Amino acid sequence: MRPLYHPPLEEMTVQSILYALSDPVRVRILAQLKHAGCAQNCSAFTRMGKNKLPKSTLSQHFKILREAGLIRSEKKGVELHNVSRCREIKKKFGPMIEAILKAYVREAENH
To answer: What pLDDT is recorded for position 42?
Structure first.
């Protein structure tokens, strides 16, 4: 199995971050990982709100987040354990990620 790609901070772009966060499910995944006290595997996210997501869909969401540089995934047996890179990213992008997460929360509250 080939290694997982995690872009270094200097290769991360605003465009890839905005694309990754253009989907509300991915925003919710990132927000949960950001506030989790430890690494989470995909199965912790099968229930997003009222909907149950298939593992294949979740895998694709995690891949997009990982390739944008928003999360770091580590293989543990057959599972991937994921953590947020928000602290690391803040060095390059400042409060952008936090502002996007807060905007989604406000939007969700108004719907």
So the answer is: 81
pLDDT, tens digit (0-9, with 9 covering 90-100), for 63-82: 999 999 999 999 888 888 99
DSSP H helices in the chain: 14-20, 24-35, 55-68, 86-93, 96-109
* φ/ψ bin of 39: left (φ > 0), alpha (ψ from -120 to 50), beta (otherwise): beta
The Cα–Cα gap between 86 and 96 comes to 10
Residue 67 carries which side chain, given as an amino acid letter? E
Query: Which helix (H) or strand (E) segment is 74 a member of?
Result: strand 71-76
Stretches where the chain sits below pLDDT 50 are none
pTM of the model: 0.90
Q: Counting Cβ atoms within 10 Å, is residue 61 exposed (0-12), middle (13-18) or buried (19+)?
A: buried
Q: What span, in angstroms and rounded, lies between the C-alpha atoms of 87 and 89? A: 6
Chain-wide mean pLDDT for the chain? Answer: 90
The residue assigned the tokens 């199995």 is 1
